[in-house]
Amino acid sequence: MEDKPVDTARLGTIRCLIAPEPRTTLEGDQRRDREGNPLWITGLVVRQLEGRRLEEIHVTTSGQPQGLSEGGEVRVTNLWARDWAMEGRTGTTYRADAITPVPGSGGAPAPAAAAPGPRGKSAGGDS
Known about the structure:
By secondary structure, the protein is an all-beta fold. 0% of the residues lie in helices and 45% in strands. The protein has no helices and ten strands. It has one domain (3-103): CATH 2.40.50.140. The chain is globular, with a radius of gyration of 14 Å.
């Protein structure tokens, strides 16, 4: 399947919903990218420019995003989407170069990163 760039300027407001967590395998090991960097997954919520509709997406990054607060507005750099299909299931995975906080956007302090757990296969299952 093909990676598709996402124009974040057209998405509206993006906020951190779930603090970054290690992206893990089913065995509990942290996944790594091709260069060996650890992968992290962050839950984001996107409010479209028009209307009240919200979308929750989980975005994978190489390296842990720093300074994010749950509820705080974030900026996503170089966001890509990839549709997938496996064993009758389908979904979309999201990858980004970086997720950074928007200064002064508020939100509660994010909890410390959790130990690797059962988040190996999310709705966005690429490695």
